[in-house]
Amino acid sequence: MKQLILAITILFFRISFANAQDFVFSPIDVMQGLSDNQIRYILQLPDGRMVFKTSGNINIYDGARFRYIHQGIQSIYPLGTYKGHYRIYQSDDARLWIKDDHKLMCVDLRTEKYITNLNLYFKKKGFKRSVDDIFLDARQRLWILAANRLSTIDQRISLQIPATEGELQDLTSEKDSLYLFYNTGKVVCYDLKSKKKLYSAAAYPADQQKVFKSTSLVVKAKDGFYQLRNGSMGGCFFFDIQKRGWKKIMETHYALNTLVVDTNGRVAISSAKGIWIIDGYGREQRYFPTLKKADGGTLNTEVSTIFYDKQGGLWLGTLNQGLFYYHQTRYLFTNIGRQYFSTSLTSDVIVQAFAQDDAGYIYIQSQSGIYQYHPAHKNGIKLKPVDFHAIPGVILDQLNQNHSASSFFGDNQTSKLTDIRGWVWTGTYDGLKVFDPVSRKERIFYARDGLSNNFIKAILQDRFHNIWVTTSYGINKVQIDPRNAQIHFTSFRSDAGTLDGEYTNGAAFESTDGTLYFGGINGFSVLNFNSVKPNKQPLKAILINLFLRGEKIETGNKYDKRIILKESTPYTKSIELSYDQNFVSFEFSALNYQNPTQTYYRYQLEGIDRGWKETSSGQENERLTTAGILEASYTNLPPGNYKLRVMASNNRIWDGPVTEIYLSILPPWWKTNTSYIMFTTLGIFIVLTVISIYVKLTTKKLSQNHREQILLLRIRNLVEQQNILQTEKGSDHVQPRPGIILEEDTNYHNKAEAIFLARAMEQVEKNLEVPNYSVVQLSRDLNMDRTGLYRKLITLLDKSPSLFIRNIRLEKAASLLLDGTFSISEITEKVGFSSASYFSKCFQEVYGCKPSEYAEKAKKST
User: Which residues cross the membrane (predicted)?
Assistant: First the structure.
């Protein structure tokens, strides 16, 4: 009798709700990058990314791409008592704990790798015995069950639970109370402060324990807990915390897989045969054995798992067909495709115009005939062909008028509209023109400005003065900022329910109830304006990828001997790069699952960008993909510290959180403070060394010049003494003439040396006017070899023979300059210099001035 009642109940739900297709699901499978189509569990991370556990591995989804975390056999830890299906917990230390039928695995989300030795991990935490099971409570505390002792992972709280209660299958918490759920259907409540048992309550009598003993899944709700139980049957129960009692919500003859509760308290349950939606703690239950897909097909398979995300989206994981996603704002448009038209499969359906009769029926004119559309037909979409002769004349006139209105424009024009402001909108083959008659200015907009396509098909102004534009691909809503008259475009493509193809010229219509109709190739799109709800869900951009010089950076890997990402990108707050790693690109995702093509970003790299840069999906020449991923690239960044700020929005209202990434470009080693100190020290050392060398050389030169002057005086004295010796022969003592200094010089010991120097000077003076008089000739005149002359003069005068000859010439030149009788050129010849320039150069080296300045300088010194 019970089975009969259950069958009647299921049949009632099936009949009542089989056509209640208010859910339209978009598929996400291996074609979009999912690792495999066997979905086992769904979870959402605190940062908003989705986690999908498949039979193959873990998939982390950012709204556009999947990242895979591969597991190895060494990462599996045996669980002693757990006999259920996949469950995934995220603890507050950024770890994912995955358990499945006596197996446990753990993923560190910061490194996106499995922990390979959980046995060692548990031992370090103080658990010496094997772990039998793990659980996560509502406060994100991880509990470990080992040998009937239940402890938190930090062992601050520990309970000894009696084995007589049965097999512990699940737990959760509420304030200071801990609730333990057993395979007997009983819940036992403990006070965590006193660690004492407060009470227990059974969900069903003892004779039903075998029916629901196999698995348990507990989900916290506002006033209590929902629990799914499976065995030979499936059941959903609700435990009221205040009343401390159970209520059976539903019972099925098949397994109930997973349960989720949304922010409004609505429950969704996945099962082997469709999904259940339950409101009001079971008072309203809707059953969907089959579900509608976006392509018009139906989903009829086991739904293995179900999940509500933070944006209100509903995710379904199937046994073998991948993922399916639904959001109430996603499919704003109803797509009436060619399958609703009675025409052959080979011929196109080109919708040309619309009209409406007094009963509210819509008439659609196509090249293959005229159809009547029933917007609110009780059996769903109803489109039927109408005989031409049965159509009222007023409707034919409307159709003809609307159709002809799109064909009178001139070359390159497809449509035209004057809006309530007086602006003139003109659609062309290449862009949308807007003319303001007040300012007499015309602007033109293209896909780079946000249009979904450059080829404009139709323009419509609705009763709320919104402008709608159809194109060769997609529909655009025009938004005009009243403050500055800036024009923005919101694009709607096939992922919003529009036609997956081209629209037709002028085929746009608004019915009396405000519904909008847009005609195209192979069908038309319908938008009920009353169903359009502004999307105020705040979005936050997260960093999902980093590229250096076009190469994707992986966590933990070295690049140019440097680990760039020590943690995965969503957990990275600062990045340090070397000076030659300054070609960097960032990828951000706003995790806009419901409408990825309606994602807007603004970003700024402080220190480089003067202000915010804004971009949106679909804009040409912008770094934003159609999947809503922002790519911000910077090249040749100079060394320094920067802060990248990124914001995301789905409505151009920038009131959401700001994501900040600190970027440091290190200078090259030669531009560091250490190198500056080293270079400064080295520079000071070099300067001091140069100064020291200069001082030494200058001192040496001055000393040398002084010595030369002294030697010349000595030579003159010796010559005078020689003259005295020649005139006073036979005298034993020589008396110097007045004005002649006779020195007692230890360098010249004897008269032979004095006589030698006098002879040498005499030979040079005799040949002063001979320019080519050389050391060789002097050595011949003195009857000496050249080497001997060199050694002799070096020993006596510390001068080479050539300098000896030159200095005598210069001394003679100085006396002639003082005399003032001869010109400089004449003196040059008289003292034997080959050229006046060479003479002047040598004279300046010895006397420190030009020959022309010498006489005047000598007068001043006297």
Answer: 676-697
Q: Which helix (H) or strand (E) holds 393?
A: helix 393-404
Amino acid in the structure at residue 716:
R
Looking at the predicted structure, is the pLDDT value of residue 743 above 60?
no
Please state, in angstroms and as integers, the Cα–Cα distance from residue 350 to each residue in 296, 338, 393, following that order. 20, 9, 22
One-letter amino acid identity for 449?
A: D
Find, among 224, 219, 231, 222, the residue nearest to 269 by Cα: 219
- d(C-alpha 209, C-alpha 216), whole Å: 12
Residue with tokens 């010895």: 846
Under DSSP, the state recorded for 33 is T
Of 84, 640, 80, 20, the residue nearest 274 (C-alpha):
20
DSSP calls for 797-810: HSS-HHHHHHHHHH
Mean pLDDT of the chain: 85
pLDDT digits (tens, 9 = 90+) for 1-53: 444 444 434 444 333 443 434 688 989 999 999 999 999 999 999 999 999 99
DSSP 401-424: HHHHTTS---TTEEEEEE-TTS-E
Q: Residue 472 corresponds to which tokens in the numbers above?
A: 């060769």
Predicted pLDDT of residue 345: 60
Tell me the CB-side half-sphere exposure of residue 144, using CA atoms within 13 A: 23
Q: What is the DSSP letter of 763?
A: H
Give Cα 328 to chain centroid, integer Å: 30
Highest mean pLDDT out of 118-122, 619-623, 813-817: 118-122
Closest CA to 372 of 342, 348, 404: 342
Name the strand (E) or helix (H) holding 59. strand 58-61
Contacts of 123 (CB under 8 A, 6+ apart): none
How far the first Cα of the chain sits from its last, in Å, is 145
Of 104, 153, 146, 149, give the one whose Cα is nearest residue 129: 146
- Strands of the sheet with 196-202, listed across from one edge: 168-174, 177-182, 186-191, 196-202
Query: Beta-strand (E) ranges in 266-322?
Result: 267-271, 274-279, 284-288, 291-293, 298-299, 303-308, 314-318
Sketch out the chain's domains with CATH numbers. Answer: 335-531 (no CATH), 542-671 (2.60.40.10), 675-861 (1.10.10.60)
Longest dimension (CA), the chain: 170
Neighbours of 136 (CB within 10 A): 21
Do residues 208 and 186 make contact, with C-beta atoms less than 8 angstroms apart?
no
Element (H, E) at 839: helix 836-847
Which amino acid is located at 542 in the chain? I
Tokens of 819: 């005399």
Q: To 10 degrees, what angle do helices 801-819 and 786-797 make?
A: 60
Distance, CA of 51 to CA of 60 (rounded, Å): 5
Strand partners, 30: none
